[in-house]
């Protein structure tokens, strides 16, 4: 009979944001607790990013992030889970509110000033910081489409 085709993720691209649960978080069994954030998941898929794919995704950080290579490695050292995230209701600012739940990108800082955030709870260091979330709202569509239209072929 053969294998059934994997259904394509359907994305909304309206009042959503992109989240990537990084490989170290997946490997340490923290996927469930991260997914418990108070948001609707409108698309979800597991990816094994190659260095080239991660580099393409992270282009905007070249020359901005102190150790770009460490950032790149934090996406390729195992499977990651990409999500399109929406608010529970349409009046929620999905992008802004989800960034608040993620917390500061450095988990050490997050533990001091926002201890309940995802990065404070599950991050190891500045690069293995549990989750990536889209920095700028206008980049949401680019990141969501990268995972769910370009990589998901």
TrEMBL record:
Transmembrane residue ranges: none
Primary location group: cytoplasm
Keywords associated with the record: Cytoplasm
Protein name (record): Nucleoside diphosphate kinase 7-like
InterPro entries named in the record: NDK-like_dom (IPR034907), NDK-like_dom_sf (IPR036850), NDPk7B (IPR037993)
Subcellular location: Cytoplasm
Gene3D superfamilies found in the cross-reference section: Nucleoside diphosphate kinase-like domain
Organism the protein comes from: Sitophilus oryzae
PANTHER family: NUCLEOSIDE DIPHOSPHATE KINASE 7
Domain Nucleoside diphosphate kinase-like span(s) in chain numbering: 14-152
CDD domains reported in the protein's UniProt record: NDPk7B
GO cellular component, one term: centrosome
KW Cytoplasm (keyword) present: yes
The family this protein is said to belong to: Belongs to the NDK family.
Name of encoding gene: LOC115890681
């Amino acid at each position: 009979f053969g294998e059934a085709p994997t259904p394509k993720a359907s994305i909304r691209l309206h009042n959503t944001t992109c989240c990537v649960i990084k490989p170290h978080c997946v490997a340490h069994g923290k996927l469930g607790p991260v997914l418990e954030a108070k948001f609707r998941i409108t698309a979800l898929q597991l990816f094994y990013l190659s260095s080239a794919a991660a580099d393409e995704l992270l282009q905007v950080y070249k020359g901005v992030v102190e150790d770009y290579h460490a950032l790149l490695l934090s996406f390729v050292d195992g499977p990651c889970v990409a999500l399109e995230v929406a608010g529970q209701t349409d009046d929620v600012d999905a992008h802004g509110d989800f960034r608040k739940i993620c917390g500061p990108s450095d988990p050490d800082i997050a533990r001091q000033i926002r201890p309940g955030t995802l990065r404070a709870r599950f991050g190891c260091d500045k690069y293995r910081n549990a989750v990536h979330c889209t920095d700028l709202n206008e980049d949401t569509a680019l990141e969501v489409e990268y995972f769910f239209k370009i990589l998901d072929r």
